[in-house]
Design a protein that fits this description.
Mean pLDDT is 87; it is low at 309-314. By secondary structure, the chain is α/β, with parallel strands linked by helices. The chain has helices at residues 6-21, 24-31, 35-49, 65-91, 115-125, 138-146, 192-197, 207-214, 226-234, 244-252, 261-264, 282-305, and strands at 54-55, 62-63, 97-103, 129-135, 152-155, 165-179, 199-203, 221-223, 238-243, 256-258, 266-274.
Length: 314
């Protein structure tokens, strides 16, 4: 095997993405490359490395033993490169490196969290930082943080992962909704028996929580993302939970209705979570500070305005 150069580093990044995707089809989406280009890159890397990195065919995709050791070494190499860039940037009082952020879906309209504002302020002085933003469920994000695949994660976490620092950001109100075509939509006196009889769509990662909160006997559907939940509710066949900033927007258009919000509504606490010690990665520290700043400003504004989330009549 000859010495590595810049081209090999680029090919190694392609290989790492392929290994983590677990298939050529998924890697094509992640890398935005055609199958022929991806195959060419892999063949070139295997030629340079002097061995076969993976097996692909009817039996599916899997790394060879040489591929597994190469993947592990490449991950360590890129972590060292990131650490080098962070240290150099810190010594030169510049923010550089790769900021790997994980968030749950359905937060773009969450004014309390205000992630767009935090990113905008951050990029004003950190334009040399590469932002890698990924969506996931709370459990997926916590696992990605523990595995070192994310630097910062934001969402309603359990606060139980060892070695993780959780900082509260804001509380997010949720309500139980039905769509305009649902029998409960036009009903004025909704009883618990009516709720129990309705088809209930639960969040797959909070399955039991949703059932216990409503005291519902069973789930008739499950979702991972809020867009999917909104779709099932809008079908007029399911009831389900949504954040108020999503559900109330549909309700204002006459497409949804909050069901007995005083009885079934709840708040979830959003946190920002990290594993790095403060000072290890200045570009990560700066972003976390922007998140806390945004949270503090929003909280102060709400306190001054005495703002309360409106509760539509059941």
């Amino acid at each position: 095997m000859r010495r590595l150069d810049n081209i090999d580093l680029r090919l190694l990044r392609v290989f790492v993405a392929l290994a983590e995707a677990g298939s050529f089809a998924d890697a094509q989406v992640v890398l935005n490359l055609s199958q022929s280009t991806l195959s060419t890159h892999l063949a070139a890397l295997e030629r340079n490395m002097g061995g076969q990195l993976c097996e692909r065919g009817r039996a599916g995709f899997r790394l060879t033993p040489f591929g597994q050791s190469t993947y592990a070494a490449a991950k360590r190499l890129f972590e060292d490169i990131d650490a080098f860039q962070n240290r150099v940037g810190s010594d030169r009082q510049r923010l550089v490196g790769r900021l790997r952020v994980g968030i749950i879906d359905g937060v773009v309209t969450n004014a309390k969290l205000g992630l767009q504002t935090a990113f905008s302020r951050y990029m004003d002085y950190a334009s040399e930082v590469f932002v890698d933003l990924e969506l996931g469920t709370p459990l997926e994000l916590e696992q990605a943080l523990m595995d070192g695949r994310r630097d910062v994660i934001i969402g309603p976490f359990s606060q139980k992962a060892p070695g993780v620092a959780y900082t509260p950001l804001c509380r997010e109100p949720h309500a139980l909704y039905c769509g305009a075509g649902h029998p409960l939509f036009g009903m004025k006196d909704i009883r618990h028996a009516d709720i129990e009889a309705a088809l209930f769509s639960v969040r797959r990662y909070r399955h039991l929580d949703d059932l216990y909160r409503v005291n519902h006997p069973r789930a008739s559907g499950s979702i991972l993302h809020m867009e999917a939940q909104a779709m099932l509710i809008l079908s007029g066949r399911f009831i389900g939970y949504l954040p108020r900033h999503i559900g109330d927007d549909w309700a204002s258009r006459g497409r949804m209705k909050a069901l007995k919000a005083e009885s079934y509504g709840f708040d979830s606490q959003h946190f920002v979570a990290t594993r790095r010690l403060k000072g290890d990665a200045p570009h990560v520290d700066a972003f976390v500070e922007e998140l806390k700043r945004q949270s503090a400003e929003t909280g102060a504004q709400e306190k001054r305005a005495g703002r309360q989330v409106p509760t539509p009549a059941a």
